[in-house]
Amino acid sequence: MRILRYLVFGAVGIVLVVFAIANREPVVLRPLPPELAEFLGVDLGLELPVFLVLFLGILLGLFLGFVWEWLREHRHRADAARRRREVEALRQEVESLRSVKESGPADDVLALVEGAGRRRKA
Description:
Elements: H1 2-22, E1 26-29, H2 34-40, E2 46-49, H3 50-72, H4 74-102, H5 108-121
Antiparallel strand pairs: 1-2
């Protein structure tokens, strides 16, 4: 299974390298339309290869997707943490009840009743 995973990763890597080599032409990225940038007197254009623009867009999309899912699942994680605390509290309560039961009845009347019940059975 590990070999298959390495083969798939290798194939994807080769495809990405070939894609990058085929798309080396530079493009200019501008946050403003050229007319508005000229009117404002700023030139914020950035010249990058096409493949880099595409790869950065994919990485940005993945990052935003991961953050969105992490935020969306906050309710589920909080609910799971609350349930874990509740289970732990119940587990401690069960242990304390077991220790009380094993130590015998703390009430003298119950001790007498249980003692009388044991004598009748014998």
